[in-house]
Design brief:
Blueprint lengths: L4 H20 L4 H22 L4 H36 L3 E12 L15 E5 L5 H8 L3 E5 L2 H6 L4 E5 H6 L7 E13 L8 E9 L6 E10 L4 E7 L4 E4 L4 E4 H4 L4 H12 L5 E6 H10 L3 E5 L3 E6 L12 E4 L2 E5 L1 H9 L7 H19 L8 H9 L2 E3 L3 H13 L3 E6 L2 E8 L4 E8 L1 H15 L3
Parallel strand pairs: 2-3, 2-4, 6-11, 8-17
Antiparallel strand pairs: 1-4, 1-5, 6-7, 7-8, 9-10, 11-16, 12-15, 13-14, 18-19
Helix pairs in contact: 1-2, 1-3, 2-3, 3-12, 9-10, 9-12, 10-11
Length: 454
Amino acid sequence: MKKYILPLITLIISIITIISILKLNMVPNKYLLIIISVESLLLLIGTILNINKNKILKVLGIILLIINILINTILFYYINNTNNFIKNKFTGDITYTSTFYVVTDSKNNVNNIEELKENDKIFYYSYSNNIEKAKEILGNYNYESSENIIETLTNLQEYLLVDSINYNITDIDKNNYKIIYEYNIETIEERSNYSSDSYNIYIGGRDFTRSLMDFNMIITINNKTKKILLTSIPRDYYIYIKEYNQKDSLEFMGLLGEKTIMNALSDLLDTEINYYGSIYTEGLVEIVDRLGGIEFCSNTTFTTTHAMVLDTYNDSYGEKLTINKGCQHLNGIETLTVARERKNVGSDRQRQKNCRQIFEKILEKSLSATTLTNYSETLDSLSNLYTTNINEETITNLIKNLIKNNYTIEEQSLDGTDGYNYIRLGTVKSYVMNPDINTVNNAKIKIKETLNNK
């Protein structure tokens, strides 16, 4: 009976591993059959040799079974980590935390919220996300709406309720104001349950404040025709927002949330956008460093206008980065600095191309064998890289198809003409790019063709 103990242990571990692979639902059937066949063959040969009376063959059988156990244990480790990652990032509702401030003039004698009376007037910035819930939690005061935060702050006699993103990004001298109360609000968004062989994903790259969209792309995927279409959109694109009945740039629409951006781009391109994925700058730095850096190739030599720092737009602070013509190795902060650069690479279109190359390199490095040595840490870094409403079924089917098939990838870019108009919901006048209707119409056609199996 003892001679069957090791084969039995091997069988149990093999079954557990195969169940975890099935649970992951990312391995194509043909590869799954190969894995099961190899598992069964190794177990059968190992068992036969193990029960053999010949000592040499018996030792070989034991070695084979132990190797099988070790391989399955390692395989289970990686699969289990991947399973946990998928469950954490692509299932369940999405929770967002917003921070709100009550702000007043720095010369005001009031220093905390307890000193306010119910009849005190509190202006509130009406374009702050979750502002109604913020008012409800704060309590009963004499509220008055404001649609121009800079004007309100400039003439602030009493108090202003505003979310931290809108306040911190405002171009004012913060020394003239003080925060007398700060609190958080949690909001829950249901994950998309959309399921289809073809769909659109909006990809937005948020800056270090997590408020401005520096990078915008629509990824159109058709799993039947094995086609992926990448549509790049300049960050200064000036487009209509139905919910607010006005135009704004994509960059500043980051303040209004992914759903607002998706709706505006859906109207612009006459297509439904089914999912979103927002990528964060600090996560980008972390994942590239975890991967040991990436190779970046440039057609020209340029020095960045931005400094190699994570949390400021002050380009006088920190060292600039020089990229030479050809390929070079970049660490995390260098990769971010290249991704941000647009002035010295010629245009925002080239910047979009550079960003596409960076994320392709990250994907290649993530799938390389060297990543296996710190796989768990890499997944943790990926968790900090983005937020998405893509569901588990969609992501697992996509990965399974990518493993099984070679996809054709096409690229296109929207273009426009230089302009100067009101952005940030009409509070600031700055550079914008007015859409070129020809590139928009061409993009519409290509997206519809990709979605409709053409």
